[in-house]
Amino acid sequence: MTISGGEHRLTAMKLLFTRFPLESAHGGAEVQTMALMHGLVARGHGVAFLGSCPTLLELCESSGILSGELLIGPPPVSAWHAISFLWRKESMEKKLLSAIAEFGQMDAIVMLSLTEKLLLTEPLVRQGMKVFWIEHDGIGRWLTSNPWLPLLKRNAKLATTIVVSDLSRDLYKDLGWPSERIVSIPNGIDLARLVQKTEADFEKAIRYPLSATRFRIATIARLTPDKGVDVLIDAITDFPNCHLTIVGKGPEEGYLRKLIDERHISDRVEIIPRVENLGAFLDQLQCFVLPSRSHDPFGLVAGEAMAMGVPTIVTDACGISYHVVDGTEAIVVPADDVSALREAIVSLDKPDIWSKLSENGKRAVAEKFSMERMVEEYEMVMSRGQTT
């Protein structure tokens, strides 16, 4: 069987995706993984999933993608788990190899988490299988200070690492990944996720009063220090006509609520755990901000905001900043810089600048971040991936 792939004719592949995370959530990594798997299936490839990620297992089941649950223990991404990995890894490898064999002959395995990258890359390459690593996670101490990093770097010479931005590509090269083994494929924006529903759905999703006199800003992020939400709170404190909605959950929520109270802005800054209708939520904003303080591999929600025509501000710690024209398609500010972020928000009060960013941002998503483009680039890379 062959399928069309641009100017090429590609033989259909059988691909096994794997993910064994420390924790699972319905975030950008899960959204992108499912979109990629759906896209590959639509192009005629056989796709299956093996892992311990409840979110992906549930999504695969509901969408008819063959999947298998396997519990092998936590990945070595914390101090204790990295140490205990020393005596856990042999039994984990046996379980993994046995489970993979049950899926039958595969052309390639697509690894999303650290455990299988460490344990399976070498033995599967020896069997003649193509191995691909997809890196959705931000680089932090869990990786740079990990005692298993030397082994990971050796295995990186055997696999093709696919990162979601040029920023991530540069950071992995700096860590010692072979440049010829790294491919940058920016995330695709799934416009179907942004389809607006009814007015009733909208009212359920948006829980703040809509006022024509207020400049509505939002961010959607896990509430952790690396996301820089406190920087955004500081940046809008002196704007009495600004209403900020923070969508997310995480360990920093208590600190952020205290910060809001100390600034006496609780009447116009709120934190809600999630929105039911992302498209309707974004459509009512004058500005979207992704204030990441440290490496944010892409910044999917920023691209989604741009797709809705919402002027968007990101920091240079966001991977998407490497793929947009600053000041034309989005505004890029230095990470952890309250003054620069405040100035960027103020600039959007000018109708011509607002309109330019709205129109050009939407166009940029269509041209650079389409789901079709992303799936086709993955397909081409996987079809030619080397095994040695």
**Oligomer status:** single chain
Number of helices: 16
Write out the strand line-up for the largest beta sheet, numbering strands in chain order. 5-4-3-6-7-8-9
How many individual domains?
Answer: 2
Largest sheet: 7 strands, parallel
Terminal-residue CA separation = 25 Å
Could you tell me the strand content as a percent range?
A: 15-25%
Helix content: 40-55%
Report what the structure shows.
The chain folds into two domains: 2-188 and 370-384, Glycogen Phosphorylase B (Rossmann fold, 3-Layer(aba) Sandwich); 193-368, Glycogen Phosphorylase B (Rossmann fold, 3-Layer(aba) Sandwich), CATH 3.40.50. Helix content is 42%, strand content 18%. The protein has 16 helices and 15 strands. β8 (160-163), α8 (166-175) and β9 (182-184) form a beta-alpha-beta unit. The model is unreliable at 1-8 and 197-212 (pLDDT under 50).
How do the helices and strands line up, and which of them pair or pack?
Elements: E1 2-5, E2 8-11, E3 14-19, H1 28-42, E4 46-51, H2 54-63, E5 66-69, H3 79-101, E6 108-111, H4 114-119, H5 121-126, E7 130-135, H6 141-144, H7 149-156, E8 160-163, H8 166-175, E9 182-184, H9 199-205, E10 215-220, H10 229-236, E11 242-247, H11 253-262, E12 269-272, H12 278-283, E13 287-290, H13 300-307, E14 312-315, E15 331-333, H14 338-347, H15 351-368, H16 371-384
Parallel strand pairs: 3-4, 3-6, 4-5, 6-7, 7-8, 8-9, 10-11, 10-13, 11-12, 13-14, 14-15
Antiparallel strand pairs: 1-2
